[in-house]
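Take a minute with the sequence and fold tokens given here and flag any structure token that looks odd. Thanks in advance.
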Amino acid sequence: QVQLVESGGGLVQSGGSLRLSCAASGSIFRINGMGWYRQASGKQRELVAAFTRSGSTNYADSVKGRFTISGDSAKNTVYLQMNSLKPEDTAVYYCHADEIITMTMPFKYPEVWGQGTLVTVSS
């Protein structure tokens, strides 16, 4: 079994910074595509930033220049550095992996989600 566990959410004032972490656990061989989504109250879940399967990065237009995604493949961990936070960034942030390949059965886990971490930006 595999699991994504997020940490680092909290309350921050507008203009402040937070760093989210997401660690994948299990008998992991490789993770294909990993990143962050968010869902604000009453809105649909949206992509924030992600590594694609080819290793390139995608960012939502609303966070370009403010958020940076990074990763440590040895630790199966991805980070999201969020700077210049705005009240509209308030949401539950979810870690997501397109596909996790494991060394034990069933060997492949598609579309894995973390439990989410709440980020609240006050004005």
About this structure: The chain is about 0% helix and 60% strand. The chain has a mean pLDDT of 96.
